[in-house]
Amino acid sequence: MRRGAAWTCVFCRSPATEVSKGQAQQGRDSGAASRRGPRGNGGPCEAQPAEVEIVRNVPSDGRIALLNYQQGAFLRLGRKALPDPTGYDPASAAHYLDALESLQNRGLLRHEGGVLYRLTGRGFDLRKGLLESGPE
């Protein structure tokens, strides 16, 4: 999608626009674009790049494990770990933990107990839509 292209926010289903990653969050190394809805910066329908990255990478069973190692916290999404364990960055880890909490607050994830989280029905719908839309 090109900058300023119209679309429907996957979180609140209202009209929104796509803005470049640099405009949304300087310093993040994620290739996903931020999505902002009509409520603007920080509003309830704003999807952060880390949220989109998590949902895109959740395996088909919808499971996410929140694991703590000596380096710090990681999200285990099937075979993928966020942040990348080979170059652990505490700031990136904090963004992913914030995103995990935000997805849960939006009703897209459910804490099933212990370290396990799982997509809700809406979360699976969002994942399917993101995967069908192709890479960003």
Can you walk through the features of this model?
The protein has 136 residues and is of the alpha+beta class. The protein has one domain (6-132). The chain has four helices and eight strands. The strands form two sheets. The protein has a five-stranded antiparallel sheet with strand order 6-5-4-8-7. Strand 5 (73-77) and strand 6 (80-82) form a beta hairpin. The longest helix has 16 residues, at 90-105. The termini are close together. The model is unreliable at 1-5 and 18-44 (pLDDT under 50).
Short account of what is shown:
The protein has 136 residues and is α+β, with helices and mostly antiparallel strands. Helix content is 30%, strand content 25%. The protein has one domain (6-132).
Residue share in helix: 25-40%
SSE succession: EEHEHEEEHEEH
Please give the domain count.
Answer: 1
Structural class by helix and strand composition: alpha+beta
Task: Give a short account of the largest sheet.
Answer: 5 strands, antiparallel
Give the strand order, joined by hyphens, for the main sheet.
6-5-4-8-7
Number of strands: 8
Helices, by number, come to 4
Basic shape: globular
- The radius of gyration over CA amounts to 14 Å
What is the arithmetic mean of pLDDT? Answer: 77
The fraction of residues assigned to DSSP E strands is 25-35%
Low-confidence stretches: 1-5, 18-44
**N-end to C-end Cα span:** 8 Å
